[in-house]
Amino acid sequence: MRRRLRRMRLYLELLALVFYQIVWSGFITAWMVIRVDRRPEGTLFEIRTDGLNEIGVTGLAALIAIAPGTTPVAIDYASETMVIHGLDRLAVPANKEFFTVQYARRLGELFPRYRVDERGSDGGALPSAQNEKNDKSDEGVSDD
Description:
The chain has one domain. Helix content is 53%, strand content 16%. The protein is built from four helices and five strands, in the order H-E-H-E-E-H-E-E-H. It has helices at residues 2-34, 54-66, 92-110, 129-139, and strands at residues 43-48, 70-76, 81-86, 114-115, 126-127. The strands form two sheets. It has a three-stranded antiparallel sheet with strand order 1-3-2, covered by helices on one side. The radius of gyration is 18 Å and the shape is globular. Residues 116-139 have low confidence and may be disordered.
């Protein structure tokens, strides 16, 4: 029950972030382009997508696409990275932190990557070590 409530809370948090991004992204992007004091300089940057399954990575790309001045360019599943075009290179550190903390962390809990067990099958679908740790912390069990 507790896990279900946590998942519901994560869905609601992501929904609120999406609405916020949709409402403000048009204004912020327009301001980046028309401001007189400084012209934006575009750049490419990478973020990690480790811990996300394919649905999670796709969701992350969609969320990044609605963020002001950013567009996903390429997703590399093998190296677990996503290349993003940023309209303003000065906003890259803040964007990377926002995408990692606000989006990827929540999506990682909702859409975790599952590993294959030693027998070579995904029977039982073992969650990644990070997700196992999260499950234990939800139950009040520590790894000590």
